[in-house]
Each structure stands twice: as structure tokens, then as C-alpha cells.
Design brief:
CATH superfamily of one domain: Neutral Protease Domain 2
Radius of gyration: 24 Å
Shape: globular
Strand content: 25-35%
Structural class: alpha+beta
Largest sheet: 10 strands, mixed
InterPro entries: Aminopeptidase_N-like_N (IPR045357), Aminopeptidase_N-like_N_sf (IPR042097), Peptidase_M1 (IPR001930), Peptidase_M1_aminopeptidases (IPR050344), Peptidase_M1_dom (IPR014782), Peptidase_M4/M1_CTD_sf (IPR027268)
GO biological process, one term: proteolysis
Keywords: Hydrolase, Metal-binding, Metalloprotease, Protease, Signal, Zinc
Strand order of the largest sheet: 3-6-5-4-7-2-1-10-13-12
CATH topology of one domain: Neutral Protease, domain 2
Cofactor: Zn(2+)
CATH architecture of one domain: Orthogonal Bundle
EC number: 3.4.11.2
Number of strands: 21
Distance between the termini: 41 Å
Length: 497
């Protein structure tokens, strides 16, 4: 921020220093990273994005992606330079309708707007580009997934840099318009509301999608290929769009029997978490992902989740993320338990709902599954480190932590905490510490020791949460009917990352 000095007699030297300091401050570039300790280069400083308009053309035969992304933002400091996270080759950049110079290296598009952008200024940033995304890597990794009939821009924690320039961190949410032109006969899926197609004169069709609520960059997706698209209306009146790759083979029936129940699952989760936070529902099943991901309004699933038959547990898991992860997003990637622990616990709740095992039975089964010296207990769900961010313990031990909270405070306070939390932090970001403070406030109980035990201690707790002698003996006789399906789901989810 520039300093302003009023020159007065006898203070010229001091005033000159102030003016020099002001000049230096005015020329500060935006930071190349937001400051996330797990991913230091993720995101950027100096501006806040409000909207992305992504207009693309994609040719499946060559994997060529071209187009323009227009970013609406506001500067949060005086800027003479700023970064965008992007790995594709840009051909031009404009800032507020003026041509800007730029350089690209190591996943950073560094923009020089040729002049200082004052704090609080509205910014219109237009980036034009053309490249082959599957040929681009960052840190030896390529998130873009080319498939036989198209491509998938689906991954976590990074996918945006392979298809649009962005401030790529969960703390900078925005609304989105996404339109993609493809050859006639190819389908395009994305987030939010489907606004139809436009026939183009060159034998191509443009598909239009709009996300009305704040969305993080890694939850924006496109799936391009040959899909069967099913449209319906949810009980709450929202549009439901489900899509199934034509390459599902023998898994197609089980996939449809699971994902077509999305609105039923959402209706159940609303009872536990509060009103559904977004404008549309649905899911996409396609080979080539290797995992499932909670893309906002329209989760995506690899068909492996349905290889042994229907699996509504993964549907419950990914749709629980619409509250825990999508609406209430992590403040930093170390807070991943707020996403995965609660989505995994939603599977416990769904298991109770469908009569395949209580949450208590599932919690005891997980606790007994791993011996005290198993590495499972050395991972800290509350701060697992980037190398263990998607470890199975973040899911399963994370769910045990949620159940421990339920046992400690009782059902009335527990569900008041969940509904209050999703309302309090709706469309925002949060840390594990903030959740603990909120749970203590609602319950009126001191919970530091509980969360220290289940989230931050690298050893097996003394007992499963809620275990007593009678229940323990009963649980030891038979595995909950849901456990094998939940276990398979978590192994696939963790293996995908």
C-alpha cells in the first residue's frame, strides 16, 4: 500500500523517505504462492478472483485444447506484477484491455501489466492459449487424463493448471462459466447448471455450463467423450444430470443403479448436515480416473467402485463432500480431515440408515482391524503431511475421530454441531482448530484431549470410541454388512491419490 505524506517545512527529509517507501510499496509484485505449507507454490497473492469464464475448443483426435479464459478479480494490494497458476502455453495476456507482457516457468504464468494496479482495482484478465495438455507436466506429474474418446480434467489437489489459468488454492473461490466446443457427437460434462448446446458451422457443437455458487479451482472439471446423459428432477426441484461413459461395459448396470440414487442420498444427508448448498445434483462415471472425486454439484466415479455390484457408499461419501469440502473448504491442505473424516463418517450414517451396520459397529470394526504397531496409527489425520494427505488413515481414523465426538457430546449436540458448522462456514474456508472451537462452543464441553487423541497422537488410542463390554462382544462375532464395501471404497479413494 502506498504511503501518503504531507510535506511541511522542516520535514522534507522525512517526507522524502516516506515517498520512497511509498514508491517501493506500490511496486510490490503479488506473491507466487498463497503460503500453504504443504504446497508453497499453490495459489497466488495480490488479488482475489470473483469469476472465471472459460471458453475452449477441444479436438479429441489430437488432444489439442485452445481458447480463452477471462478472469474477473480485484487487487488486494498495489501490484506491478502478479502470477497465475498455469502449465499450458499462453499466446497472449491482456489486463483491463491492455496488452501485458508475461513469462512462463514451473507452472507459473507471471504477468506484467505495465503499470501499477492500485489496491481495490477491478481487474479483467484475458488469457489466450493453445496446447496439448497431456504433454505438459509439473513436478514430473500430469493431471490431465487423455482417454480413448476424449479427456478428463479431474484431480485433487491440482487440475486447474492443465486447462485454465487461475489462483489455484481453495481459499480463493469464484463462480464459473465453462463452455467447450467439440466435434459433433462428442459430449462435454461440467459443474452446475447445463445451459444447452450451440451448433457451430464447422461441424462442432459448443456445450455450456454455469456454476452459480462459489467454487474452488480443483473442484471445477470437464469430462469429454462418449456419454449417455440422463436428466431428471430431484425431490427439491433441482436439476439432476448423471452421465455414464459408453465404455463402462459390464459395470454399467451397477454404476447406474448406484449413481441414479444420488438425489435419495442427498435427501438423507440434508437431514444430517442441513440444506444442500448448491444449485444442481448428479454424477459422472467414466474409466480413466482411478478414483472418485467430489467435483462440485457433480461427483465423478471410476467404474471400479461398481465392479462387484451397486455401491451407494461411495455416492454417500462424495455427496457428503458437497457440504464438507465443497461448501466448507479447507483453509490449508493440512486441514484435509475436515473433508475426508466427515465424508467417511457419512458412510457410517448411510450404513445405519440402510440397516447394514451401526456407526458404532463400523467404528469398532475399524479400531480392531489395525494392530497397535500398524503404521495406520502413526498417520495424524489432523496434520498428516503432504506425503500422507490421502492416506487411508485420514479417511478411516478420521471417521473414528468424528465418531468419538458423537460419543462424547451425544446425538443432539453432535448433529447440532454438524448443521451449525455447515451453516456457519457456508461457501467459506475453515481449519481443524476452528472446528474444534466450534464444537466446544456448541456442546459446552472441553474437547482438546479428545481431538488430541484421535487426530494428533501417533499411536493407537486405548479403546474404540463408545465401546463397552456387551457391545464389544457382539461386534466381535460379526463384521457389519457395510464394512467390506466401505473398506473397498476407502482403499480405492486413497489409492487414487
Amino acid at each position: 500500500m502506498s504511503l501518503r505524506a504531507k510535506l511541511t517545512t522542516g520535514t522534507a527529509a522525512a517526507a522524502s523517505l516516506l515517498l520512497l517507501a511509498g514508491t517501493a510499496a506500490a511496486k510490490q509484485p503479488g506473491a507466487p504462492g498463497i503460503g500453504d505449507p504443504y504446497y508453497p507454490n499453490a495459489g497466488n497473492g495480490g488479488y482475489d478472483v470473483s469469476h472465471y469464464d472459460i471458453r475452449l475448443n477441444y479436438q479429441p483426435a489430437t488432444d489439442n485444447l485452445s481458447g480463452t479464459t477471462t478472469i474477473l478479480a480485484r487487487s488486494t494490494q498495489d501490484l506491478n506484477r502478479f502470477n497465475l497458476d498455469f502449465v499450458l502455453k499462453a499466446s497472449s495476456v491482456r489486463v483491463n484491455n491492455k496488452v501485458a507482457s508475461f513469462t512462463q516457468a514451473d507452472g507459473e504464468l507471471v504477468v506484467d501489466p505495465k503499470g501499477t494496479l492500485r489496491e481495490g482495482s477491478d481487474l479483467t484478465i484475458v488469457v489466450t492459449y493453445s496446447d496439448v495438455p497431456s504433454s505438459r507436466s509439473l513436478g514430473g506429474f500430469t493431471a490431465w487424463k487423455r482417454i480413448p474418446d476424449g479427456a478428463l480434467a479431474i484431480d485433487e489437489p491440482d487440475i486447474a493448471p492443465w486447462w485454465f489459468p487461475s489462483n489455484n488454492h481453495p481459499t480463493d473461490k469464484a463462480t464459473f462459466d465453462v463452455s467447450v466446443a467439440v466435434p459433433d457427437g462428442v459430449e462435454v460434462l461440467s459443474n452446475g447448471i447445463f445451459n444447452g448446446t450451440t451448433k457451430q458451422i464447422n461441424g462442432w457443437t459448443r456445450w455450456w455450463w454455469r456454476s452459480l455458487k462459489p467454487q474452488t479451482t480443483y473442484l471445477a472439471f470437464i469430462a469429454i467423450g462418449q456419454f449417455e446423459i440422463r436428466r431428471s428432477t430431484a425431490p427439491n426441484g433441482q436439476p439432476v444430470i448423471n452421465a455414464y461413459s459408453e465404455r463402462l461395459g459390464e459395470d454399467a448396470g451397477a454404476a447406474k443403479a448406484s449413481v441414479e440414487r444420488t438425489s435419495e442420498v442427498v435427501e438423507f444427508l440434508e437431514e444430517k448436515f442441513g440444506p444442500y448448498p448448491f444449485e444442481a445434483q448428479g454424477g459422472v462415471v467414466t474409466p480413466g480416473i482411478g478414483f472418485a472425486l467430489e467435483n462440485q454439484t457433480r461427483s465423478t466415479y471410476d467404474p471400479a467402485f461398481f465392479r462387484r455390484g451397486t455401491n451407494t457408499y461411495v455416492v454417500a461419501h462424495e455427496n457428503a463432500h458437497q457440504w464438507f469440502g465443497d461448501s466448507v473448504s479447507v483453509h490449508g491442505w493440512k486441514d484435509i480431515w475436515l473433508n475426508e473424516g466427515f465424508a467417511s463418517y457419512a458412510e457410517f450414517l448411510w450404513s445405519e440408515h440402510v440397516g447394514e451396520g451401526t456407526a458404532q459397529e463400523n467404528a469398532e470394526f475399524i479400531y480392531d482391524l489395525y494392530a497397535a504397531d500398524h503404521p495406520f496409527w502413526t498417520v495424524l489425520p489432523g496434520d498428516p503431511g503432504p506425503e500422507n494427505q490421502f492416506d487411508g488413515a485420514v479417511y478411516d481414523r478420521g471417521a473414528l475421530a468424528v465418531h468419538a465426538l458423537r460419543v462424547a457430546v451425544g446425538d443432539e449436540d453432535f448433529f447440532s454441531i454438524l448443521k451449525g458448522w455447515t451453516a456457519h462456514k457456508r461457501y467459506g474456508n475453515a481449519s481443524v482448530e476452528e472446528f474444534i472451537a466450534f464444537a466446544e462452543k456448541v456442546s459446552g464441553e472441553q474437547l482438546d484431549e479428545l481431538f488430541k487423541t484421535w487426530l494428533f497422537t501417533p499411536s493407537k488410542p486405548a479403546a474404540a470410541p463408545g465401546r463397552d463390554g456387551e457391545f464389544s462382544a457382539r461386534a466381535a462375532v460379526a463384521e457389519p454388512k457395510s464394512r467390506q464395501k466401505i473398506k473397498e471404497t476407502h482403499e480405492l479413494l486413497a489409492a487414487g491419490h
